[in-house]
Predict the 3D structure of the following.
Amino acid sequence: MNEDTFSFEPVRPRPVTGTGTAVLGVVVPIPEPWSQLFVDWRAKVGDPQAGSVPPHVTLLPPTEVPAGDRAAISRHLAEVARAHPPFDMHLSGTGTFAPVSSVVFVAVARGIGNCELIANDVRRGPLTRSLAYPYHPHVTVAHDVAADMLELAYCGLADLSAEFRVQHFTEFEQTPDGSWAVAAEYPLTGPPH
Protein backbone atom coordinates (compact mmCIF):
# COMPACT_ATOMS: atom_id res chain seq x y z
CA MET A 1 0.00 0.00 0.00
CA ASN A 2 1.29 3.46 -0.91
CA GLU A 3 1.38 5.35 2.37
CA ASP A 4 -0.80 8.13 0.97
CA THR A 5 -3.41 5.72 -0.33
CA PHE A 6 -6.47 4.50 1.49
CA SER A 7 -7.01 0.94 0.43
CA PHE A 8 -9.47 -1.78 1.20
CA GLU A 9 -7.50 -4.61 2.65
CA PRO A 10 -8.14 -6.81 5.66
CA VAL A 11 -6.33 -5.88 8.83
CA ARG A 12 -5.61 -8.07 11.77
CA PRO A 13 -8.47 -8.22 14.30
CA ARG A 14 -8.04 -5.80 17.17
CA PRO A 15 -10.00 -5.02 20.31
CA VAL A 16 -12.44 -2.13 20.09
CA THR A 17 -12.07 -0.92 23.67
CA GLY A 18 -9.24 0.51 25.72
CA THR A 19 -6.43 -1.68 24.42
CA GLY A 20 -5.03 -2.39 21.01
CA THR A 21 -4.78 -0.05 18.09
CA ALA A 22 -6.91 1.69 15.50
CA VAL A 23 -6.02 2.75 11.96
CA LEU A 24 -7.18 6.29 11.19
CA GLY A 25 -7.04 8.59 8.21
CA VAL A 26 -8.12 12.19 7.75
CA VAL A 27 -9.41 13.53 4.43
CA VAL A 28 -11.17 16.30 2.60
CA PRO A 29 -14.18 14.44 1.16
CA ILE A 30 -15.20 15.16 -2.43
CA PRO A 31 -18.87 16.19 -2.66
CA GLU A 32 -21.45 15.16 -5.24
CA PRO A 33 -21.74 15.18 -8.16
CA TRP A 34 -17.95 14.86 -8.38
CA SER A 35 -17.70 12.01 -5.88
CA GLN A 36 -19.81 9.64 -7.96
CA LEU A 37 -17.95 10.68 -11.12
CA PHE A 38 -14.65 9.60 -9.53
CA VAL A 39 -16.16 6.33 -8.27
CA ASP A 40 -17.46 5.62 -11.78
CA TRP A 41 -14.08 6.34 -13.34
CA ARG A 42 -12.25 4.12 -10.85
CA ALA A 43 -14.69 1.32 -11.67
CA LYS A 44 -14.35 1.97 -15.43
CA VAL A 45 -10.57 1.47 -15.29
CA GLY A 46 -10.86 -1.64 -13.12
CA ASP A 47 -9.54 -0.14 -9.88
CA PRO A 48 -10.52 -2.56 -7.10
CA GLN A 49 -10.83 0.38 -4.66
CA ALA A 50 -13.65 1.99 -6.69
CA GLY A 51 -16.49 1.07 -4.35
CA SER A 52 -14.66 0.86 -1.05
CA VAL A 53 -12.64 4.07 -0.77
CA PRO A 54 -14.65 7.30 -1.02
CA PRO A 55 -13.08 9.97 -3.26
CA HIS A 56 -10.99 12.36 -1.18
CA VAL A 57 -7.90 14.49 -0.75
CA THR A 58 -5.74 12.91 1.95
CA LEU A 59 -4.68 15.07 4.91
CA LEU A 60 -3.41 12.18 7.08
CA PRO A 61 -2.62 8.87 5.40
CA PRO A 62 -3.69 5.66 7.14
CA THR A 63 -1.98 5.80 10.53
CA GLU A 64 -2.00 3.21 13.29
CA VAL A 65 -2.62 4.75 16.73
CA PRO A 66 -3.14 3.39 20.23
CA ALA A 67 -6.88 2.96 20.81
CA GLY A 68 -6.46 4.69 24.17
CA ASP A 69 -5.40 7.90 22.37
CA ARG A 70 -8.73 8.32 20.55
CA ALA A 71 -10.11 11.01 22.90
CA ALA A 72 -6.90 13.07 22.62
CA ILE A 73 -6.94 12.63 18.84
CA SER A 74 -10.54 13.84 18.63
CA ARG A 75 -9.68 16.92 20.71
CA HIS A 76 -6.63 17.56 18.54
CA LEU A 77 -8.60 17.32 15.29
CA ALA A 78 -11.32 19.62 16.66
CA GLU A 79 -8.64 22.18 17.56
CA VAL A 80 -7.13 21.96 14.08
CA ALA A 81 -10.57 22.48 12.49
CA ARG A 82 -11.21 25.52 14.72
CA ALA A 83 -7.92 27.06 13.51
CA HIS A 84 -8.72 26.84 9.78
CA PRO A 85 -11.45 28.55 7.76
CA PRO A 86 -13.59 27.00 5.03
CA PHE A 87 -11.95 27.35 1.61
CA ASP A 88 -12.62 26.94 -2.09
CA MET A 89 -11.21 23.93 -3.87
CA HIS A 90 -10.77 23.60 -7.61
CA LEU A 91 -9.85 20.24 -9.09
CA SER A 92 -8.52 20.50 -12.62
CA GLY A 93 -6.75 18.13 -14.98
CA THR A 94 -4.81 14.96 -14.33
CA GLY A 95 -1.36 13.93 -13.23
CA THR A 96 0.54 10.77 -12.40
CA PHE A 97 3.15 9.57 -9.95
CA ALA A 98 4.60 7.17 -12.55
CA PRO A 99 7.17 5.72 -12.61
CA VAL A 100 7.42 5.92 -8.80
CA SER A 101 3.86 4.68 -8.29
CA SER A 102 1.14 3.44 -10.67
CA VAL A 103 -1.30 6.22 -9.80
CA VAL A 104 -3.29 8.66 -11.90
CA PHE A 105 -4.90 11.53 -10.05
CA VAL A 106 -6.96 14.64 -10.54
CA ALA A 107 -4.92 17.65 -9.53
CA VAL A 108 -5.83 20.21 -6.88
CA ALA A 109 -5.51 23.53 -8.74
CA ARG A 110 -6.90 25.75 -5.96
CA GLY A 111 -6.82 24.91 -2.27
CA ILE A 112 -3.33 23.37 -2.26
CA GLY A 113 -2.05 25.79 0.39
CA ASN A 114 -5.10 25.22 2.58
CA CYS A 115 -4.63 21.45 2.38
CA GLU A 116 -0.92 21.79 3.17
CA LEU A 117 -1.58 23.96 6.24
CA ILE A 118 -4.31 21.68 7.57
CA ALA A 119 -2.31 18.50 6.85
CA ASN A 120 0.73 19.91 8.67
CA ASP A 121 -1.39 20.75 11.70
CA VAL A 122 -3.17 17.36 11.66
CA ARG A 123 0.21 15.56 11.66
CA ARG A 124 1.20 17.07 15.02
CA GLY A 125 0.47 16.23 18.63
CA PRO A 126 -1.05 12.76 19.01
CA LEU A 127 -0.88 12.23 15.24
CA THR A 128 2.76 13.22 14.76
CA ARG A 129 4.27 11.31 11.89
CA SER A 130 6.60 11.78 8.97
CA LEU A 131 5.86 11.00 5.34
CA ALA A 132 7.96 8.93 2.95
CA TYR A 133 7.23 11.40 0.12
CA PRO A 134 6.53 15.15 0.12
CA TYR A 135 2.86 15.95 0.73
CA HIS A 136 1.00 16.42 -2.57
CA PRO A 137 -2.78 16.96 -2.32
CA HIS A 138 -4.67 15.10 -5.07
CA VAL A 139 -7.66 12.85 -5.78
CA THR A 140 -6.68 9.33 -6.86
CA VAL A 141 -8.69 8.05 -9.84
CA ALA A 142 -6.65 4.96 -10.80
CA HIS A 143 -4.24 2.94 -8.66
CA ASP A 144 -2.36 -0.26 -9.53
CA VAL A 145 -4.28 -0.97 -12.73
CA ALA A 146 -3.00 -1.95 -16.19
CA ALA A 147 -1.02 0.68 -18.10
CA ASP A 148 -3.75 1.15 -20.72
CA MET A 149 -6.28 1.81 -17.96
CA LEU A 150 -3.95 4.35 -16.33
CA GLU A 151 -3.75 6.06 -19.72
CA LEU A 152 -7.55 5.95 -20.10
CA ALA A 153 -8.02 7.68 -16.72
CA TYR A 154 -5.25 10.18 -17.47
CA CYS A 155 -6.72 11.20 -20.83
CA GLY A 156 -10.38 10.76 -19.93
CA LEU A 157 -10.29 13.21 -17.02
CA ALA A 158 -7.69 15.62 -18.44
CA ASP A 159 -10.32 18.32 -19.08
CA LEU A 160 -12.14 17.90 -15.76
CA SER A 161 -12.88 21.04 -13.79
CA ALA A 162 -14.66 20.76 -10.44
CA GLU A 163 -15.13 23.62 -7.97
CA PHE A 164 -16.66 23.43 -4.50
CA ARG A 165 -16.44 24.87 -1.00
CA VAL A 166 -14.65 22.78 1.65
CA GLN A 167 -16.55 23.24 4.92
CA HIS A 168 -15.09 20.35 6.96
CA PHE A 169 -12.64 17.46 7.02
CA THR A 170 -13.46 13.86 7.88
CA GLU A 171 -11.79 11.29 10.12
CA PHE A 172 -12.08 7.69 8.91
CA GLU A 173 -11.34 4.51 10.85
CA GLN A 174 -10.49 1.23 9.21
CA THR A 175 -12.82 -1.55 10.30
CA PRO A 176 -11.62 -5.11 11.00
CA ASP A 177 -12.76 -6.20 7.51
CA GLY A 178 -10.52 -3.54 5.92
CA SER A 179 -13.20 -1.06 4.86
CA TRP A 180 -13.29 2.60 5.95
CA ALA A 181 -16.02 4.05 8.18
CA VAL A 182 -16.60 7.71 9.00
CA ALA A 183 -15.55 8.28 12.61
CA ALA A 184 -16.22 12.05 12.80
CA GLU A 185 -16.53 15.23 10.76
CA TYR A 186 -14.82 18.43 11.90
CA PRO A 187 -16.26 21.76 10.68
CA LEU A 188 -13.70 24.33 9.60
CA THR A 189 -14.55 27.39 11.70
CA GLY A 190 -11.30 29.33 11.88
CA PRO A 191 -10.80 32.97 10.90
CA PRO A 192 -9.75 33.73 7.32
CA HIS A 193 -5.99 33.45 6.73
Q: What stands out?
A: The longest helix spans residues 70-83.
